[in-house]
Hints:
Number of helices: 5
Amino acid sequence: MLSKTIQDALNKQVKMEAESSQAYLAMASWAEIQPGLDGVTNFFYQQSDEERMHMLKLIRYINERGGFAEVPALEQPMITFVSLQRVFEEFLKHEMAVSESINELVGLALHERDFATHNFLQWYVSEQIEEESLARTLNDKLELVGDDKGGIYLFDRDIMLFRGAASPSQSVGK
């Protein structure tokens, strides 16, 4: 059985994962109306789906442990961006915030001596290491490219290699 403290903290994380999904959905939508960013579009649609899966995993865990998972109300995410580089800066910033939140949850689980939750959260710890590394790598690549249209074209093409993002012909809604 989850303590009220752990349940509340996990529900806070549910909201953060839902916000991540919405933020990445907004990034995908923005990218989709930019010319030639099919790879980026598909990457962020996939990121959005992944974050939703993270949220659902938390919801199931809370309920299975005798708690009550809350479906959160969400604020409108940022929907327009001044540049592709800004999108990826926001991506990194968001992943760093999620990592910090997961680390606080792990600390709380240890403090509460809730070893089952601590064990459950280890998957999220590993996932966040991967997510932050990916976000940093993509930001580094964009920094190298700058505003070079040829470089952005290659970045967009190459991003489809990350996480097996769908090819443009398999993009959502096309």
